[in-house]
Amino acid sequence: MSTSVFKPGERQLSDPGSGPTENYLNAGFSAKSWLLTVDHKRIAILYLISLTFFFLIGGLFALLIRLELLTPAGDLMQSETYNKMFTMHGIIMVFFFLIPAVPAVFGNFLIPLMIGAKDLAFPRLNLLSWYLYIGGGLLAILAIAFGGVDTGWTFYTPYSSTYSNSNVILAALGAFIAGFSSILTGLNFIVTIHKMRAPGMTWFRLPLMVWGHYATSIIQILGTPVVAITIVLVALERLFSIGIFNPKLGGDPILFQHLFWFYSHPAVYIMILPSMGVMSEVITCFSRKKIFGYDFIAFSSLAIAVLGFLVWGHHMYTSGQSIYTSMVFSILTFLVAIPSAIKVFNWTATLYKGSVSYSAPMLYAIGFLGLFTIGGLTGVFLATLAVDVHVHDTYFVVAHFHYIMVGGAIMGYMAALHFWWPKMTGRLYPEGWARFSALVIFVGFHLTFFPQFIVGYMGMPRRYHVYPEEFQILNVFSTAGATILGIGYLIPLVYFLWSLKYGPRSSANPWNAKGLEWEQAGSPPETFNFRDTPVVMEGAYEYEPKIWLK
Amino acid sequence: MANHHHALQHHFEDLEQQFESASLGMWAFLITEILFFGGLFAGYLVYRSLYPEAFAVGSYKLDVLLGGVNTVVLICSSLTMALAVYWAHKGERTKIVVFLFLTIVLGAAFLGIKAVEYTHKFHAGLAPGNAFSYDGPFADQVRIFYSFYFSMTGMHALHMVIGIGLLTYLIIRARQGAYTAEYSTPVEMIGLYWHFVDIVWIYLFPLLYLIGRS
Ligand code: HEM
Ligand SMILES: [Cu+2]
Predict the structure, then answer these.
(1) How many domains in chain A?
(2) Nearest to A512 by CA among A357, A400, A329, A397
(3) Structural domain contains residue A472
(4) Dihedrals phi, psi of B45, to nearest 5 degrees
(5) Whose CA is nearest to atom 30 of ligand 1?
(6) What is the CATH number of domain B12-210?
(7) Structural domain includes residue A474
(8) Does some domain include residue A135?
(9) Taking the model in full, what pTM does it have?
(10) Could you say which of A105, A138, A347, A485 has the lowest number of CB atoms within 10 Å?
(11) Residues with Cβ < 8 Å from A489, sequence gap 6 or more?
């Protein structure tokens, strides 16, 4: 085995435009070379394109929801239509955008590069995962085409299993199949991280992005099968009225909620943990500092993965579950906020006395820091039994999870997209526009969702298309904000596409960042990532010069 | 590089790394499977503790003899599977094929017996859905018992069918001489899967057939 030693400070391939002439992008141009590829980087690009498509569809539904809520009366659509709007918005955004988003694109692209491997452990399985995702997505689109679903993304029984007349089975089957895509991706990552690390890449030299994905993968393989079987039971109930969720026969619809949230609470961490991984990479690079508290960040990811399985009951305080059960779930939910807070403190401490620069990825990362904190803290309000009984199923909850999912997870996704865009495409995006749109997104986001905290606290329930007049002004703010937010997401779409053709070529390491993907691979990388297997001699974030050690 | 075996995939350093990856992957997959069946088992436990009498009534209508025979059949198939793996390690082509084939025969026998049982239950009006016509004591909850019976054993049978498909693939590859003393990973991995499916039945049998019979 031939190896090249990875010395600190040595930067190969770093002069501008010296990316390898042969790379994964120009390795083949036919449709077949893309649709049958087993290269993890190409599969990541396939995901990027399809995820963007689903994001746009989900966004369209969001737009319609906000338009309807502009006025207190139901003047744009009927309540049935409105039910379908928020359901399809939720299903598309959760199952077909946010859950796969960061892992399927950036995890796929970067994990092998970050650990010094040629590919994921199971490349064909990786391709299969993409096809499963597309298959599930097509079923969801079919469900929309046939008239949509109206159960809410949560598919609560007995409405979904007995009463709803919409395309529940199609949509549920779509989520089921996409779930297997998620399971297989997680399985692939776990094996890759265990077995494919380059010589010298010890567990505690792994970039924290890899730790984040490892924790995510654990949740994916443990949680997703449970929701899969639950979905099967709902489908069987609809087809054969098997009675398990049907109170008429002695079945218990609440059991569905338990099984659903046993997956879906951990699933909210599937959405956020990978973005937390992105945070650690971006924050260190743009403050030119070693991460503060590496071990704490790494283990807090695992703690979140484990504790996340013990708190599902906080979605069911008002479902009739016993008050003692609720108290235990409440305490456990407070506990899960601790590892999240640890991360926030560590990132903040990393900024302290760093040479902070405000490039677009960093703007998104700082946005994440603030928005996730607000989302997390309001989560603690919700975990408090007495408060939740009042604000459950109001816009307060909607605001809470959008602060985390849009303000946290999607901010992380955008940070990653900007940070690794030069690596993935070999092109630089226009920095000025990027900063501008980060700002637009930040402003639009707050204007959309902050009023929802207030209006929810005042008592506006979620999932209704009409509301009392006194809530109108806040809803107008929210709709205005959503428009700005939408524009904020469209600007990057334009300049990223523009940069593919007109963007200046990127050097191998335009950010002067640490990590094998920057220091040892070209932009874009070649098909097998590294010419020779790298040998790792130092930790992931050696940004500060070590002269003072001597 | 020392090892240039034809089965070595390009992204692995050597066959050992490839084997370890496959093995870890299979175990992770089986953990996923445990959680998948776990949802059903959890539901079963909830309703059994809610309606113990109804579950006993429902269970009593199952055919312990056929279920018991099937248990033996499956345990035998685990043995033949283990022997196939054993001979795969030695690279003995004919013996691999013979034991894989026996495993398939036993698996098919299991499914055949299961089909007979299902037919009886349909005729007795115990299959959930419109065909359900039992109206003895606890009729509704007995229906829930049978819902679990059919979903759990049905899901198990589905796994058996997939297993038989995988074994057929192994036989074809084994006849081509794909498995040698150095490389028999697929036989071993699919073997793990087969044993897992057997173990699920080992839990299903007492939980469904033997309650309330002491
Ligand atoms: C920091 C720790 C967190 C705590 C303590 C927390 C707490 C809670 C609680 C108690 C609820 C239930 C509110 C109700 O329905 O009345 C809730 C709902 C929700 N949370 Fe969080 N949460 C946290 C983090 C997250 C994260 C990271 C995400 C997503 C990435 C998230 C997404 C959601 C969603 C989607 C819902 C509502 C689901 C629905 O009913 O449709 N939460 N959260
Ligand atoms: Cu939760």
Answers:
(1) 1
(2) A357
(3) yes
(4) -65, -40
(5) A268
(6) 1.20.120.80
(7) yes
(8) yes
(9) 0.94
(10) A138
(11) A55, A59, A437, A441
